[in-house]
Amino acid sequence: MSEPRARRSRWIFLIILALGLITGTTWFFNRSDSLASDPTQSADSAKKPPSTPRPALVVTAQTPQRVRLAEQLAANGDIAAWQEASVGADVNGLRLAEVRVNIGDMVQKGQVLATFETEMVASEQAQARASLNEAEAALAEAASNATRALTIAPSGAMSKQQVNQYVTAAKTARARVAAARAALATQDLRLKYTQVIAPDAGVISARAATVGAVVGPGVELFRLVRRGRLEWRAEITAADLARLKPGLRAQITLPGDTEIAGTLRQLAPTVDPKTRYAIAYVDLPAGSSARAGMFARGSFELGQTEALTLPQEAIVMRDGFAHVLIIGADQRVTLTRVQTGQIKDDRIEIKEGLSADQRVAVRGAAFLNDGDRVQVVAADPASAATGAPALQKPQSAPGTTVIADR
Predict the structure, then answer these.
(1) How far apart are CA 193 and CA 116, in angstroms?
(2) Shortest CA distance to 225 belongs to which of 390, 104, 321, 388?
């Protein structure tokens, strides 16, 4: 840097420093003159007490109210068929000719579900009938011969051996007729079984039958939900089993938030040793939107009970748990964890953590923290009747700002 420029910079610094000193001196003398003209100003400022902390928020408050609630037991479980029927083939070596139903079809008891080809069975049936006719003709001849032999036997024209032969031949022919009739009955059954019949009324839930397939006896062709009845199999803990009994009403919520009512039919006689749950079987109404295989939640109605309740607005969720803000005598709130229960008409049950005489912040509670100071006002009666209290704002000077005292 050149010497003229350095000299210029020093002069500029000295000028700025002089101006700062002049400004500071002027302010000091003006302040001294002001205090001299009003000697009580500094004394009043020293004696003025500290301002009272302003509240963090204006809120409404309530004490818990006792309300009669329906005592309920919540549970989860699957929707399943009350009973299922497996419909199979009773014939062997025949080809399926026709399938008349599909999955979801309603069927009646005795309805034909499918048919097999009948030509082979009809031919064997005709053969069995012919064999029966032949056996009956042979029986008629043998019976006639035995009758004549028995008639002649007293005269001595025939030996006893010959008479016994005719009698035995008649008995043999009679046995052959019985065998032929049994063979014909078998073919009649085979012809009957070429039609697959529904054993009961219900809904087809599965179908394995395919036209043209050759199936063996006992192979399942259809699965049937008997009478279309479904049930909710609720999982109940061992401790809650004693609270349930057949006949209790249950409210079930299906996927999509559709609600249906059911009736507890029976309780399982055993508890699963692995899960420690027992099954409660709840009958569902016919024609509902429930489907087998659904997962549903629900609750059993156990009766009426008295419970402490608060508006839902008073519940504050912190760290995944429910809390309330209890207002103390110094108008400061204390964050307290509570255990909640069922909800009814915008009020929530408080099971543990709160007594009936404690006052709780309601409107505005969500914006408070533990230790905040609040101002409690009354709710507007007209809006309180609708469950949404309107706050009455406190009178304050223009430009006043409400600050948190934390």
Answers:
(1) 8
(2) 104
Residue 12: what pLDDT?
72
Closest to 249 in 3D by CA, of 262, 237, 234: 262
pLDDT tens, 35-59? Answer: 445 544 444 444 445 555 566 678 8
- Which amino acid belongs to residue 357? D
Output the six-digit token pair for 218: 């006992």
End-to-end alpha carbon distance in the chain: 57
Mean pLDDT of the chain: 83
Q: What is the pTM of this model?
A: 0.58
Mean pLDDT, residues 364-382 taken together: 80
Quick: pLDDT tens for 94-147. 999 999 999 999 999 999 999 999 998 999 999 999 999 999 999 999 999 888
Q: Report the chain's C-alpha Rg in angstroms.
A: 49
Q: Topology of domain 57-63+306-384, per CATH?
A: 2.40.420
pLDDT in tens, 285-336: 988 899 999 999 999 988 888 889 999 999 999 989 999 999 998 889 999 9
**What is 86-224's CATH number, 3.40.50.300, 2.40.30.10, 2.40.50.100, 2.60.40.1180?**
2.40.50.100
The predicted pLDDT at position 359 comes to: 93
Query: Residue 108, Cα to own-chain centre: how many angstroms?
Result: 30
Third-level CATH fold of 73-82+227-304: Elongation Factor Tu (Ef-tu); domain 3 (2.40.30)
